[in-house]
Specification:
Elements (H helix, E strand, L loop, with lengths): L2 H4 L25 E8 L5 E7 L9 E7 L11 E3 L5 E10 L5 E9 L8 E6 L13 E4 L8 E2 L5 E6 L19 E6 L7 E6 L10 E4 L5 E7 L2 E7 L10 E2 L10 E4 L5 E6 L8 E6 L8 E6 L4 E8 L5 E7 L6 E7 L1 H6 L8 E8 L3
Antiparallel strand pairs: 1-2, 2-3, 3-4, 5-6, 6-7, 7-8, 9-10, 10-11, 11-12, 13-14, 14-15, 15-16, 17-18, 18-19, 19-20, 21-22, 22-23, 23-24
Length: about 375
């Protein structure tokens, strides 16, 4: 294959700041999912996901929606990332950095998986404005980033990127065996520059989709999607070197999970608990840095609910987004709850909600 073809994924895409009707829910193909969520300092909610075509492939594009009434109503797409030709945009992530800027990340690949892919991003410096302005897309690293970055107590921004291993998707295009791990990219200058920091080789990992937590003892904790649940590794030197991996014992159906430290200091984990396959999506709370998870709140018991992402706002409310039936209902949903709801095991606080639809593709 000519290099000029496969290297099309290295070309910055022109952002569509006024998406046409072809991106509306009624015009999308029979596939959509993999969402991300953020909430601005001014209270605006933003949701991203990808759609396009009948499956994961070159027709995929990334969309962004917003809500200015706490998620009760959502806009039509306000931004589309849709590369031309056989290049696809997929696996988007939203993150508001400590400066209040909104980052939209996505992966860009020639065809379904070209072996190299690439993490791209654009930044909106004022996500509460009526007219959102975006920087030109930049490429951060090879691979895919499926989860939010983590800021350490040292002020370093850590980005969890990965190049999928050959056993996940074999390809004859770009082979990067030296990078086929759960990697960490670091920025020490608030996102101006990026450098490879280190990587973990977690046994039985599958698509990686790792997240990073800074523990109270100062170590970094990497949690990684594995075919038998969630694997883990630790770093005592800020992410440069990583311990031998082990199984957390939490279980799970080989799917993305979400973990984040809350304002209280407790850890929130969203994972599939007690069901079969991708069902029984549950929020769990730990008061001992992840050693035990005694408090649980069932978010959605139905089948084919998956890929949670979330954020906690200044008032303590937690918002978790996820998808349902990527080839059927094609729903993007969210839940809103508080720590007290998790401890009670039910949605009890004023303003809490479950199974709220953000977007549903189809006529």
């Amino acid at each position: 294959m000519p290099a000029v073809d496969k290297d099309q994924s290295l070309v910055p895409v022109a952002l569509d700041r006024q998406p046409g009707p072809q991106y509306d829910a009624s015009h999308r193909g029979p596939f959509q999912g993999i969402p991300g969520l953020e909430k601005t300092r001014g209270g605006r909610l933003l949701c991203t996901f990808y759609a396009g075509g009948s499956d994961e492939g070159p027709d995929n594009y990334v969309l962004l929606l917003r809500s200015d009434d706490d998620g009760h109503h959502w806009s039509r797409p306000i931004l589309a990332v849709d590369p031309p030709g056989k290049v696809r945009a997929f696996d988007p992530v939203l993150w508001i950095d400590p400066l209040g800027r909104l980052w939209l990340f996505w992966a860009q690949s020639y065809t379904k998986f070209d072996g190299r892919v690439g993490v791209w991003f654009t930044i909106c410096s004022n996500p509460d404005a009526d007219d959102l302005q975006w920087t030109e897309p930049r490429r951060m690293a090879n691979g895919i980033m499926m989860n939010k970055p983590t800021m350490t107590s040292a002020g370093h921004w850590l980005f969890p990127t990965a190049v999928w291993a050959e056993h996940v998707y074999a390809t004859e295009l770009n082979k990067l065996p030296q990078e086929q791990y759960s990697n960490v990219i670091c920025s020490q200058d608030q996102g101006e520059t990026f450098a490879f920091l280190g990587s973990a080789d977690v046994k039985d990992r599958w698509f990686d989709e790792h997240m990073l937590v800074e523990r109270r003892d100062g170590r970094l904790w990497m949690l990684v999607r594995c075919f038998n649940g969630i694997g883990q590794a630790f770093s005592a030197d800020g992410g440069r070197t990583w311990s031998r991996s082990s199984d957390t014992g939490w279980g799970g159906p080989n799917s993305r999970f979400f973990i984040r430290r809350l304002q209280s200091g407790c850890l929130l984990l969203v994972n599939h608990v007690g069901g079969r396959g991708r069902s029984h999506l549950t929020a769990l709370l730990s008061e001992d840095d992840g050693d035990t998870w005694p408090h649980k709140l069932l978010l959605d018991e139905r089948d084919q609910v998956s890929y949670p992402d979330g954020v906690q706002d200044n008032e303590g409310a937690v918002y978790v987004v996820y998808d349902r039936e990527r080839y059927g209902a094609r729903e993007i949903l969210h839940a809103k709850f508080f720590e007290t709801d998790i401890r009670a095991g039910r949605f009890q606080e004023a303003g809490s909600r479950e199974k709220a639809v953000i977007d549903k593709a189809g006529p």
